[in-house]
Write a structure and sequence with these properties.
homodimer, alpha+beta, BirA Bifunctional Protein, domain 2, Gyrase A, domain 2, 2 domains, 4-stranded antiparallel sheet, 18 strands, about 15% strand
Chain lengths: ~525, ~525
């Protein structure tokens, strides 16, 4: 048909079904709101783009299964989704059972089951697993999502990494160019220092540089002040062609972004710009160390530097965010920084095992989950300085998005009890079955989970994960087509021994009334 | 190792983990209760049988995917499990959302979604789909189960049937012998008349025979009486070697079974037995029509006949059950009727579209689901005599178990509305999205779902579907390993605006108290 060469002479025709006037034309160039597309999802699915996305997803997953199951001897095991709550599982949907007061929980991942399978001698497990997380309204999150879930016995980090590299290389669509392996890696500390984030987009440079030493005896007041504090640092980032492309308004936006989001000062410096936009402090800095700055930042004429000062991770995080803001701004002017046809994979390693628990000073929580094994070099710190212990967790990053994460797990029951009980102060009774299982000769094991929706979204270049899911929920968690969730007659709740606790707070009532289709458009 | 030929000389050894004394030995011949196996499932999984079952399951599903996806162009589409309740969906688990009074429901199957995908132009869909059904405590049922879910556009019954035959042939384990296609088929009416069930085990004969005409002028009182009523029939079944193998106690058991379960008389007749077990009526019958009976029943010396009289379907159902009872009894004595190595597939066709609604005289309900298309020859009866309409539903039966079911669907919105609204008197607003979708040029379509757990159970010869599921629930719906479902602190229910309605009925409280592990052992 695309050639126009085929003509059909119809002898007889039978009308199989008629079609009402469509609410929108099924053409990709016809713009429609996402709410309308989701309401008539069965029509939206007819679009070229949705057909392409779903068919590519199916094929890529099939290749992954082929790789894991046929080439590498993995066993596809289905694990339950009607499970029991996990400690701290406040984001787990609950399902009332027919026994009064007892609930199942929808698991956030098959984590416990995959570890139990290792204890059970199914030493290479995978599953394309449905997972559930109730995060309320968050853009680009789905209450149910899919992960490629993998676990192996007698494996180390390198083993998992090369398996996943091979998996992606094997399943990558041929028209998206070959995937080169092995993927580069950075430690968490390196990623933070150079990119200000644990998921750097390595398709472009603009790395963060530490200038603390260079500015040790500067006259510039705010740098002096920062360096005078015990944890003070000076950080800078070179925005390529920043002076060439960015407007005064853009630069104002950058400064405001830093003030609003980080409550922190950022100083644009034009070391060799024709534009005379340097502030008095920036001028002073250029006079003081102009050429040295140019050298250490590898800056070219036309570039802009962004300087900030403060505690290491705060300063890095700020510049990390500004790096992406600047990329957006530059690309809007026509510069090409992040080639959409390029796929830059990166492993990020050596995460901290614990983080300070938000809102509970002095307490710790798992940076990922409580089954993550500590870094072998740091085990001795577990009892004395747990906050300094690095983990055997690894993240897989693609073009600045986290597409996977995993770890070597704790296989020693004693150590697992210590982490849960002494460090995290969790209720171990909820996990007694897992602790017991480790006691029965659990092999060393580890695994990973790849976020399938996000991965396919990046491969297809779709603007949202909703474009690679056949029937997604809106960002408020609604199915705009069927209008789920919906009211249920009280008699249908009776067998489950629950009743609705209608809120007395009028705000909460308001948010639930009205047609849910419109507030989301 | 099985040869005993390999010896290992150890130079160094490292203890990776230690193992406590196991609660039972991991040997297939060591008998343990199912409750103990489920409590320590991670140990039970180490048994040869569980390893075999789960690995075979994984491989067979992989072959099915290969067949559907790679050989036949099907698209694997994941459909949501957080959905909205369906009309009459009293067996659907509910999931409270963060909006007061609103609930998601866990779907019993992706039925609506697969039909919507056909409207959406994904004309060949499959999914290994997780489904949910809350049937309380029923043996050999799981609250979550898996089906191979298939839907196609522009297809008829023959098309679906030959696809599924090819699918099973292709994925069948090579050590289980080849699968012969096409599978034989029976109409629902034929299956009922010959086997007294819609899922006959066709590995053995002992078919039901109608003897109404032969006994039209009998002197035997209870046959006379039955044939005197408008719907009266006389039915008989020949139990091969019944007179040879069965004891008086067995025969008493058979009569009691008929009386207890069907409140109906069954008459054992020994037309040419050396044993003198005939009752006076049986004697009369043998004298009246001995040789004719032998001929029409194809009975041999040593066989036993079972006679019953009454309304056609009742009489057939009784003999259908007794057929299986007798098979059990005969096999217990050493006869081989149902070869476990034989796989007898059978299609059952032309089911009724509607059945009388239980407990609502005069009303109808769908025999399968309301989207099933009527048989083309019976469409004209829809408005006048809907109870006589046959459907385009088909069941796949293997060795007497239903392993699949599907249908050609209604693709005409008008007809679908008529069925829902006028015939079934359902609340159509719950399905307005589907009705609307049919209006937009839905193609003719149909599909099937194969019950994967049951199928794998039959292939492996496992005694229960729990033996082909890695982490099954007990028949009371409990996870005996983790003790799910479990109590949840009230504060974790708050975001979902529900509270537990504790029963005031002491019976209900009793059933939920105590350790759930023991009542199930």
């Amino acid at each position: 048909m695309p050639t126009g060469d085929i003509e059909i002479k119809v002898k007889t025709a039978q009308l199989l079904n008629s079609c009402k006037k469509l609410p929108f034309e099924i053409k990709d160039f016809v713009k429609k709101t996402e709410a309308l597309r989701l309401q008539y999802r069965y029509l939206d699915l007819r679009s070229f783009q949705m057909q392409y996305n779903l068919r590519l997803r199916s094929q890529m997953v099939m290749k992954m299964r082929d790789y894991l199951c046929n080439l590498h001897g993995f066993v596809d095991v289905e694990t339950p989704t009607l499970f029991k709550r996990t400690p701290g599982g406040a984001k787990e949907f609950v399902i009332p059972s027919r026994e009064p007061g007892k609930f199942y929980s929808l698991p956030q991942s098959p984590q416990q089951f995959k570890q139990l399978l290792m204890v059970g001698g199914l030493d290479r497990y995978f599953q394309v697993a449905r997972c559930y997380r109730d995060e309320g309204s968050r853009p680009d999150r789905q209450p149910e999502f899919t992960q490629i879930d993998i676990e192996m016995s007698f494996v180390d980090q390198t083993g998992i990494r090369s398996l996943v590299e091979g998996l992606l290389q094997y399943s990558w669509p041929s028209d998206k160019g070959p995937v080169e392996v092995p993927f580069p890696s950075l430690t968490f500390a390196e990623a933070l220092a150079s990119y200000g984030t644990d998921k750097p987009d390595t398709r472009f440079g603009m790395k963060i540089v530490d200038l603390s030493d260079a500015f040790r005896d500067t006259q510039a007041g705010f740098l002096q002040e920062a360096l005078g504090t015990p944890q003070g640092t000076v950080k800078a980032m070179c925005v390529s062609d920043g002076a060439k492309y960015l407007t005064r308004k853009d630069i104002e936006h950058i400064r405001k972004f830093a003030a609003d989001h980080f409550n922190q000062e950022v100083l644009p410096v034009f070391p060799k710009a024709s534009r005379n936009w340097n502030s008095p402090v920036a001028k002073l800095i250029v006079e003081e160390r102009g050429s040295g700055l140019m050298r250490s930042m590898q800056a070219q004429e036309g570039d802009m530097l962004l300087l900030t000062a403060g505690e290491h991770s705060r300063a890095c995080s700020l510049l990390g965010k500004l790096r992406l803001e600047c990329a957006d701004l530059l690309e809007a002017k026509g510069a090409l920084l992040r080639d959409p046809a390029r796929f830059s994979f990166l492993w990020v390693l050596d995460f901290p095992l614990f983080l300070p628990k938000e809102g509970h000073p002095g307490e710790l929580e798992s940076a990922h989950h409580p089954f993550t094994a500590p870094h072998p070099s740091d085990v001795h710190l577990l009892s004395t300085e747990p906050e300094k212990v690095r983990s055997q967790h690894y993240d897989l990053v693609l073009n600045g998005s986290e597409v996977g994460g995993g770890s070597i797990r704790i296989h020693d029951a004693q150590l697992q009890r210590h982490v849960l009980d002494t460090v995290l102060k969790e209720d171990v009774t909820l996990l007694s079955h897992l602790l017991q299982a480790l006691d029965y000769g659990a092999p060393p094991h580890g695994g990973i989970a790849l976020g399938l929706d996000r991965l396919i979204c990046l491969v297809t270049g779709a603007p949202s994960i909703r474009d690679v899911i056949a029937f997604p929920k809106s960002f408020r968690g609604h199915d705009l087509m069927s209008n789920a969730p919906d009211f249920i007659p009280p008699e249908e709740l009776k067998p489950y021994h629950i009743q609705v606790a209608w809120p007395t707070d009028p705000e909460a009532e308001k948010s639930s009334s009205g047609d849910p289709r419109h507030p989301e458009s």
